[in-house]
Amino acid sequence: MRLQGKVAIVAGAGSIRPGMGNGKATAILFAREGAKIVAVDRNLDAAEETVGIIKGEGGEAAAVEADVTNESEARKMVEETVSKYGRLDIVFNNVGIGLGGVGLRVTEEEWDAVMNTNLKGILFVCKYAVPEMRRSGGGAIVNNASMAGFSSHPIYAYATSKAGVTALTRSLAVGLAKDNIRVNCVAPGFIATPMVDVLMGEQRDHVIQQRVPLRRHGKAEEVAYAVLFLASDEASFITGQTICVDGGLSAL
Question: For an engineered disulfide with 94, which of 23, 87, 146, 206 has Cβ 3.0 to 4.6 Å away?
Answer without folding.
Answer: 23
